[in-house]
Amino acid sequence: MKVVNIEGIGDVIFVKNNRSKKYYLRVNKLGEVRVTIPMFGTYKFAVDYVQSKKDWIIDGKSKISAAKGKKVYSIGRIDYNEKFSISISTHDKMTVKSQEEISRQREIINILVPSTVDIQNAELQSIVSEHISKIMLNAAKNVLPSMIEEISQATGLSYSGLRISSAQRRWGSCSSTNSISLSKNLIKLPTPLINFVIIHELCHTKHKNHGKYFHALVDSYCGGKEKQLAKELRQIEKVLL
Ligand SMILES: [Zn+2]
User: Fold this and answer.
1) Distance from residue 201's CA to the centre of ligand 1 (Å)
2) Which domains, ranges and CATH numbers included, belong to the chain?
3) Would you put residue 69 in left (φ > 0), alpha (ψ -120 to 50) or beta?
4) Mean pLDDT score of the chain, rounded to an integer?
5) pLDDT tens sequence across 151-162
6) Dist. CA 209 → ligand 1 center (Å)
């Protein structure tokens, strides 16, 4: 077995199999690219073969990343909700640049990528993803405080403090002293779901458990849609986290 990093594709695993009669190329469930080399085959031929199938491999890898819930970024702008957008465009430098922009109360993360590199390139995808996750904390700090404040005012549920966290597997929490923590990833949700998570945490200031009085309170502030919103949140978690 031999692992070779091929530009624009990433690591490719080559396995020699003397029982194999021809070259096999596949992208497995983990997104790994594996090539079987037959008894009389050569690495050189296998590498050329992989390069000739580059588009097919990239397509396969991005489908798998998407299925695994990993973000696959492409050129263009996505408005995640009324307050948060990510815009990816190209420039003629070989670097990735990112900056925050606030316009009309909308937080926009602008990413510039080299125009000469395919945006589907695995390495570029991971650099873009790193940039975004770094700026997201700041973006969330610009977006979330006013949202929780508004809901707190409207419901009369007050909290003692707010922390924006980088938690990956948890949208929010409420401490015994009613200090609320919200994950920066919330800003990628549709607004009704952000509100739902905030309502959920604010209701914990009254009930520290998930008992029936807690759910009744949440439901009353969600217009009777708690179950539906919880279901939508579970579905979106699979794609987003
Ligand atoms: Zn809870």
Assistant:
1) 6
2) 2-68 (no CATH), 76-142 (no CATH), 144-240 (3.30.2010.10)
3) left
4) 91
5) 999 999 999 999
6) 7
